[in-house]
Specification:
It is a single chain. The chain is of the alpha+beta class. The termini are far apart. A hairpin with a 4-residue loop joins strand 10 and strand 11 (148-157). The chain has four helices and 23 strands.
Length: 373
Amino acid sequence: ATTPVDTDDTKPGDDTNPGDDTKPGDGTKPDDGTKPGDGTKPGDDKNPNDGTNPEDGKPPIDDDVPIIPVIIVDGKIVIDGGNIIDGGNVIGGGNITGGGNVIDGGNITDGGNITGGSTTGDGGGITTGNLPGMAGAGSNSANGTTGESTVSTMLKIGDGAVIVMVVCNGNCMAGVADTVAVANAALTPEQIQLISDGKTIEIRIEVTDISENVPPQDKELIEDAVEANRDELSGLVSGMYMDISVFIRVGVGEWNAVTSTEEPFDIIIGLPEELQEDGREFYIIRSHEGEYTLLNDTDNAPETVTISTDLFSSYAITYQQTDEADGNTKCGLCHICPTFLGICCFIWLTVIITAVIIVVIVLRRKKEGKKQA
């Protein structure tokens, strides 16, 4: 009789087969690409930092980002009018006629202006930014190390969304006047369709003060532009330099730079205190691909400038002092009266009245002196 040969090559006590290259105790194979402890494979596109999967098109969203319900009409994003109260008619996705008030997702609109969670600009648009008066327009997060401030607003379309972020680097302050207009200007019809299909797209607008580090070619072009416009705008000088950049990404994919949009949208930039002075008219010079454009400040606020642009690169905020050139300039004392020769007309009136009183007193004394004589 022959003795049976044991061919299973097992080690008593661990029920494993040393010949299958397993590691006793964890049941895994060293060459199967797994990482014990997290259950993920290096090649399965998992991002362990935020727990998202690039294939699902859903970037992580802060809980405090306000959500504005919107819909798509004729390929454009418009605010969802929501429920109608008090007999008003809703047209254009949220504009009100007939005096009605609309309540939608906790935001109350009255005459087209939205309050209660989102801030509206003078034109009724939903603003996003870190400027005073934009408080509540979006979630605001600041990085104390880099000086970066990020404000976000989400436009929600079913399962899809557009997140518009305004990022201010350094000590600058900025915002957009109409978040919906930004989305319509920056996104292509194909990208809007992706949102309708449930994807999330982010639009990142970065505003950076580059006064201390202006690209040489941009600085030279802007200085030439200032000189070329001094005949028409006497005394035009540069105040500060800004870089405005736009980026877009779909889901958690790569950020792609956008140097131009199909339509312009309004960007509001806060002026530092040293530039805020009475009697100044501001202009913006844009340097883009070797050409400059002189843009007007479209707001009347003394602490901000607003530009409408569809090109993104380097900008210079310039100003012209108009105190002496404009006889209708308001005075720096009361900010109401016009000036004459740079002096408040109220002061001129006071001087004239005082002079008349002095003349009357002198004449009266001379007349009394003659009578006594």
